[in-house]
Amino acid sequence: MFAYVLRRVLATIPLLIVTLYLVHVGVSATTNPLADFYLCLPRCQQGFDRIVEVYNLDVSIWVRPFYWFQDAARGDLGFSSAIGIPVTEVLTTRGWNTAMIAIPAFIGGSVIALLLSVYSARRPYSKGDYFFTALSFIGFAFPSFVMALLLQNIFGVQFENWFGVKPFNTGRKTGDSFLTLLRDITLPATSLAILGIAADSRFGRAAMLETLNQDYIRTARAKGLDERRVVWKHAMRNALIPIVTLWALNFSALLGGAVVTESIFSWPGLGPAFLKALGEPDLALVLGFVIFTGVVTVLFNLIADLLYGVLDPRVRFD
Known about the structure:
The protein is an all-alpha fold and 318 residues long. It has two domains: 2-73, no CATH class; 87-311, MetI-like fold. It is 75% helix and 0% strand. The protein has helices at 2-30, 45-54, 64-73, 87-122, 127-141, 144-163, 178-212, 215-222, 227-255, 259-264, 270-279, 283-311. The chain is globular, with a radius of gyration of 24 Å. 31% of the residues are buried.
């Protein structure tokens, strides 16, 4: 298994390097950090020269990425001009804020989606199955920004007007208590979870329904095994294999920054920082974001691959 993990990591490094190189060249070709200095020359010649030195603007855009790679290899990802702090600090602080809503959204959404999948697969084409299918389609139909705005308006604004109580906050508030944190994360996490439930429940229903129709499940039932044991121990194990792949992709995407949801709820996560970096543009922060999302995606896909061997003993990593 160690050899398999090592091969996967080593195979990913060149891909990540090529991606960073292309992003660096693309942003450099479409932006000009000196645009604000031309009108004030020669009075701002010192600042002009400093920008040229910092961003290596006196060399070809095809060569500039290599200077950035040298600094990145030493752990220096540069300074974020959009946020005003080093890129590593942006990724750690903003990444933690994103994780505070992504982790509860992923866990809660995955558990609910799994339960709905089992229910619908055990009772296909029943009234309950049709009901949850309709809810899933509604979840698909609502764009993420519409769902976030609805939750924000109903539970963050109108609920207080109706009942005189504001149970949830609509943004990050100051305060160290667990109750304050819970009120902060509930609405954005719920918004992200609803979208995940809609997709995961339908995907899980299809996987579970296919598994329940396998011959070994019929054999287990014919032997007189309890239905609960048949479903949750025998069928669930195989049905989880494709679902784990979807979970890995979803969770890495959540940690990469839920741009729309975080922006609507004024949540200081990676999403708004990335939008601000694109608007500046802030090349150092854009590259740092690419590194972060790339590493997270590779890590969780690797975890998903390793879980295949746990769920299905026939899977080997030799």
